[in-house]
Amino acid sequence: MASQVRIGIIGAGAVSDYHHVPGIRLDPRAELVGVCDSNAALVEKRRGEWGCPIATTDYEEFCRHEKIDAVIIATPNHTHCPIALAAVACGKHVLCEKPLGLNAAEARQMYRAAEKAGVVHMTAFTYRFAPAMRYLRHLVRSGAVGEPRHFRSQRFLDWPETSWGWRQYKRSAGAGDLFDMTIHRIDFAIDLMGPIAQVCGAVRRFVPRDRTADGQPCPPSEVDDWSSLIGEFRSGAVGVWEGTTLAKGYGRNGFGHEWAEVNGSQLSVVYQLHCPNQVLIGRTGQDLAPQPVPAEFLVAPGSPRDPHQGEPATVFRYDVVWEFVSAIVEGRPAVPSFYDGLRAQVVADAVLESYAQRRWIAIDDEPR
Length: 368
Fold this sequence. Notes:
Order of helices and strands: EHEHEHEHEHEHEHHEEEEEEEHHHE
Largest sheet: 9 strands, mixed
Radius of gyration: 20 Å
């Protein structure tokens, strides 16, 4: 491998521009060398903006390029599996946006291929890197909360009721809020509380989204804009999740409302996205009150990122790339891996199955 990890980005949209490119720029061990997108005009635009010597609309050609060591996949959901399989077949390390695929079968195929190829694989479960979430995890794992009993998650957004583009069709997205937002919360619930044993869930589409932002007609949405589930963890703890894009008044400068809490036998601890550098902690006789996240949890270990620079609810996302590159350089698995993406996908699929069949669905503890 070259002295630096040479990264190519597949999918040149806003997520890459806002999150992945700044993360690469912050890491002295990483170099952005290529851009690939199905939109030729966007490829040329990003080539100039990002300064990429390699630029193409052909992802297979891109994955074969000898001057690329690793790829970041930030494309529509239905393309994740074929692109990832092409990349690992060429020996490239892969960081892929969530959900890994349109269903658990695709995610499992990606995971197995990456493991067989011996490459580093990572799922972009961004919110694991929020300082408050990292500290909450520490408080749970260290025993400070006592016996974890309840997990609770709310993700409320106030989005326009116009078209989501590819994100609103099952063939390209798989599902809506469930796969886009709630799947993140499923992941960090498993990380905090351990494997989920069974779930029951429901989804609903309230808004047709049959008009674009400029008023042009388009085929109506086929996916959920509200999702919810109840889960039982193998530990005996329980969880409740709810997500929506239709919560009026929950703008919060575009970040929306996110609340995740663990109630334990000793403490309750709360993470909130809009103030990610503090947690709320309470115990019997002491109401929930804000406490700053200790300095050692503000950035990923070793990251050069200054946690006091930039918008707090944005900058922690840059540590995703830091973890990816660290795993490559250190020759270890990345966290969260494709396996973590698969575990969350199994649960999300079970929510859809539960709603269709109106019953609880058992979760395979070892979905490999």
